[in-house]
Amino acid sequence: MREVFEKIYQGLDIAYGQHQSEGRRSDGKQEGKSYIVRELITNELWDNHLNGVGPSLGIIPIMADNNAKWGCIDIDQYPIDYKKIIHKIRELHLPLVPCRSKSGGLHIFLFFSKPIPAKQIRNKLREVASCLGYSSAEIFPKQSSILIEKGDLGNFLNLPYYNHKETTRYAYKDDGTAASLVEFINMYNLYVKETIDDIAIQIPGEVIKDGPPCLQQLCTQGFPEGTRNNGLFNIGVYLRKFDPDNWQNLLEDHNRNFMSPPLAANEVITVIKQLDKKDYNFRCKDAPINSFCNSKVCRTRKFGIGSSENTPEFGAMTVQLSDPVVWFLDVNDNRLEFSTEELQIQTKFQRKCMESLRKMPPKMKESLWQETLQVLMDNATVIKVSRDGSVSGQFETYLQEFCTDRAQALNKEELLLRKPWTEDGRTYFRLKDLIDYLTRNKFTHLNTGQIIARIREIGGHSEFFKIKGRGVNVWVIPAYQQQDSEFDIKELDETPF
Asked: How far apart are CA 85 and CA 157, in angstroms?
């Protein structure tokens, strides 16, 4: 059973997620801090998850090659009408498996039999979420790509079927009842797909032709109670773009055809008068279209919101607790690496976007910028880094190698030959020679002042020598223990292969 479950939720194998619960919010959602552990995922971790032993397992769906075998729409808007969503999924013939999440929300999974580009999965799930009326829901994988060579790991999702025999994280069958682990596997086998092209979503293109997908969807399925007036206003914004000379007559037709029941004549006239005053934009943040928004597609439509808007769209943030701290943030669905300073100072953030995205985001009010960053940081996933993975740890490793692994000076005079010299339990070297060594090994994370500070932290100090009539400044640190003999490697009696 474990092998099948592991195959279904295959993801990045060099790290996994854990969640530390901190109680529940007033809306019922579970709060807490998320951490990523940079270790290989073992069979024991999978077994422990299914058996309810220790923390539950979180998997990062995006792999090192930026492919994925599964994705998820994470709905945590409470209360949730599970049966209504399940009915909508089956009505649209979508190959999805809905599961109850750890916090009592809904995880809607899309599975593939083999890895495909994570970007394709994200785009498809955005489209699905929009059709379901949950366009603001989080999408996993949260990234189209990750900067794995720089230490980035993306974001994880807590898996279902923790303590599977008594689990509260189960898949929903079509009648809304809980599915056992075996039944979940059967559902997976029923709905798993090979390619993204196997998933068809029908959105009428002739309705609101070349316009916002949210209006296309709402005109097809109907506008919710209490949203007709605002809905007709947004239709009017579209019609003014589509047919500037005849939009008023078309608006009356759309009211009769798509509003149930149609708005009264005086209400339609009020909307027309309002739209006549100036060129309005779509009210994307207001109901009902906010729930069905697909801005990525809308920007490509002739009569959509357009592509001229430079304000960046922020996605998931991950913080690596290294020294210095490194931030990874999705900007316009592109994964970027930032220093703390590049996030603190807007002009440095703009420069990063210009160099990486060829976009110049407008400068926000400082208070709004700080508020935006705070929200991102509050929801950031933390990557814990071991000592040897930090900048300080890497520096100490290179310093030890410099002092022990290269040719050693036989006497004080040979310090001028760029060699470290060890005597009486102390090692001497010139700072310039150490910096050259670090540069050759492409370690450039510390400036000269920071290097000196770290040498002092391990008990180092400077001294002044006279060598061959020259004044030489050197640094002195406690000597590292050196290996006096080679490793004892036994010869094999037989060829192993």
From this structure: 21
